[in-house]
Write a structure and sequence with these properties.
It is a single chain. By secondary structure, this protein is α+β, with helices and mostly antiparallel strands. It is built from ten helices and 22 strands. It has helices spanning 10-22, 27-41, 51-58, 91-95, 111-116, 124-139, 210-219, 240-246, 335-338, 342-347, and strands at residues 47-49, 67-69, 72-77, 80-86, 102-106, 109-110, 141-142, 146-152, 158-164, 166-167, 171-173, 181-183, 185-192, 195-202, 225-229, 253-259, 264-269, 283-286, 298-302, 308-312, 315-318, 323-325. A hairpin with a 2-residue loop joins β3 (72-77) and β4 (80-86).
Length: 348
């Protein structure tokens, strides 16, 4: 888990909390004792997931070839699941779904009831992560199957749409307890005032997008600027930052160290080879807020009664001296593009 937890007297903690767990008269009381134990660790990304939450986040058991898409993405905004993007050629666009709509129902499942199970003592960051995973799972289904969905539109009016899932696009990737994710990258050129700007958007930090990302950088090598659009991206493989950042650097830069119980890994931004160097300072990171910490440095371990414990496998020590469990980092961008409310999203 973390780099070290020498500040925790585990024997004393066991002596204090085990009697409380043994005398608990309900499952909820036992969960309360476990949460007290996790709080003593004093690190982010440790949490107890009740069975209902863990089950919702798993999604239906489908093979990658069976997975279908409704053609839109949702993200956590103010404790609700809001449509953050609609595929231009997907079934949701054809059905009239728009960014900024609030998802309220998937089939017979009331979304607000499901969301209500996520806030049991969790931090805002962890609640957002759970909410993103819940939304991803609720929308998941078999290709060819239709689902009736309920929304609140831009006027807060209740609307419903019947949508048939189409095959999910992208490269399937699997991590831990989460449903299969499909890594996608889109690169396009935008012309502004006679200047060519390359825009690279990808939905998850997984190695499946490494080669497409390199190819996109080469394509925009002579562009006036490059925008990395990370809105709705939950995170992923932390070590990918070494190669990605190397496209914009002339020399190696120490980003920090990932430490586990067994080993440590220096995160060094490596400049790309001579063919790829030269993107320089033309990068703008653009994102919808704090990445939600999917990361390959996290695990979920099953407990009895199908509860689960969400825990990091490592700690990131930043080069400037700060620390973050599981490598979570805050991105920067203009407030106008980072502000996430249904009304702002609908205008993007």
């Amino acid at each position: 888990m973390a780099e070290n937890n020498s500040h925790v007297d585990w024997d004393a903690l066991k002596a204090e909390l085990r009697p409380r767990a043994e005398s608990a008269r309900s499952v909820d009381e036992v969960r309360g004792v476990i949460r007290q134990m996790l709080e003593r660790v004093g690190q982010s990304h440790f949490a107890l997931l009740p069975a209902s939450v863990a089950s919702d986040m798993n999604g239906p058991p489908l093979t990658p070839g069976e997975v279908g898409s409704l053609g839109f993405n949702v993200g956590p905004v103010g404790g609700r699941l809001v449509v953050t993007g609609v595929d231009a050629k997907g079934p949701a666009r054809a059905a009239g779904v728009k960014p900024g709509w609030v998802l309220t129902r998937v089939g017979n499942r009331d979304v607000s009831s499901a969301v209500g199970t996520l806030s049991d003592g969790a931090s805002d960051h962890l609640k957002d992560f759970r909410l993103w995973a819940l939304g991803t799972s609720l929308l998941r289904g078999r290709s060819g199957e239709g689902t009736e969905l309920g929304f609140l539109d831009e006027r807060d009016a209740t609307v419903s749409r019947q949508i048939v899932r189409t095959p999910e696009a992208g490269v399937p990737v699997k991590f831990g307890h989460l449903p299969t994710l499909f890594a996608r990258l889109d690169a396009k050129q935008v012309d502004r005032d006679g200047a060519a700007i390359g825009v690279i958007a990808f939905n998850v930090w997984m190695t499946a997008i490494s080669r497409p990302f390199d190819e996109a950088i080469d394509r925009f090598r002579t562009a006036k600027g490059i925008v990395l659009d990370l809105r709705g991206n939950p995170g992923g493989v932390l070590t990918m930052i070494m190669g990605v950042s190397g496209h914009f650097l002339d020399g190696p830069v120490n980003l920090g160290v990932i430490k586990t119980r067994e080993s440590s890994l220096n995160l060094v931004a490596n400049p790309a080879d001579g063919r790829r160097r030269g993107a320089g300072r033309r990068a703008i990171q653009r994102t919808g807020g704090d990445p939600r910490g999917l990361g390959l440095v996290q695990r979920v371990g099953d407990l009895r009664r199908r509860d689960a414990v969400h825990r990091p496998r490592a700690r990131l020590r930043l080069a400037h001296g700060g620390r973050r469990s599981s490598g979570r980092a805050r991105a920067r961008c203009p407030a106008a593009t980072c502000s996430n409310t249904p009304s702002v999203i609908s205008r993007r």
